[in-house]
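RETRY 2/3 - previous attempt timed out on the joint model. Re-submitting the same 288-residue input unchanged.
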Amino acid sequence: MRIVRTIHELRDALQSVRTGGSIGAARVGMVPTMGALHEGHLSLVRTARAENDCVVMSIFVNPTQFGEAADLAAYPRQEAQDVELAESAGVDLVFAPSVAEMYPTGFATAVHVSGPLTEVLEGAGRGSAHFDGVATIVSKLLLAVLPDNAYFGQKDAQQLRVVQRMTQDLGIPTRIRSCPTLRDEDGLALSSRNALLSDTERASASRIPSALTAVTAALAAGDISVSRLRAVAEEVLVGGNLDVEYVEIVDPDTFESVKFVERPALCAIAARVGTVRLIDNTLLVPQR
Ligand SMILES: Nc1ncnc2c1ncn2[C@@H]1O[C@H](COP(=O)(O)OP(=O)(O)OP(=O)(O)O)[C@@H](O)[C@H]1O
Ligand SMILES: CC(C)(CO)[C@@H](O)C(=O)[O-]
Ligand code: BAL
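RETRY 2/3 succeeded.
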């Protein structure tokens, strides 16, 4: 496995993959990450490995998508361990650029995705700059690698939709692949930020997936009213010392709110546990 730190080195390495040796017209898969790798990231790599000849992972804690300086400063960084994990999961090439490489002096361009897709939930909670930061860095990463496929987790469902919209609108010729959320035994979605939780905070955090499970059960029992389903979630969340930011049920494509779950809808939750902000979601599928 090779590690490269500049776009120039990255293009050179990819050129030899694409033209080189026995591989010929190699299919390239990309897994963008912010590092602090866990099994969730590695599951994306394994899917990429199965569907491509060459797997590129980027590791870059992108400052422009962080609203809060404290969140950026606290974000876990562990490159040496990440490199080992990436190699063991089958990554061929790691792109780990510096901030100056991605945002050189004078950098003045942003990619902005507009509409409810970026204004609600995470767009509202983390500020309007968040998805501009994500769309800008993901377009730079995709343009640097021009992968055939790029892999994103359903845990960040809104980000996934924003990236799909952006690649479609800009005509970036990469297929965006959606991968399921991996969870720990207590149901908590794997997340790099989980490393920042104390044991008590972790117990509180596990109420988030429990709330999603309770909503799924209430829907299965025949309740399709969004206001009642949200109340079911809130009842589970309350008492866990959680600072709930939102419990929303939205159209999974447009992220507009719905009143009744008559078609598949996304139930998404964001909550703070101490200083750590966590998100999770599940697709609600009504029975016919
Ligand atoms: N539990 C998970 N299962 C599957 N994919 C995941 C999981 N957690 C993160 N991913 C995906 O991995 C990619 C990189 O995410 P990122 O590096 O931000 O990790 P993260 O664990 O989501 O960190 P954090 O939530 O703390 O920002 C994203 O596409 C994200 O959706
Ligand atoms: C897609 C991404 C790597 C862009 O910085 C980040 O938002 C993430 O890790 O989900
Ligand atoms: N995992 C999504 C990226 C972020 O939290 O900024």
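DSSP finds twelve helices and nine strands in the chain. Closing ticket.
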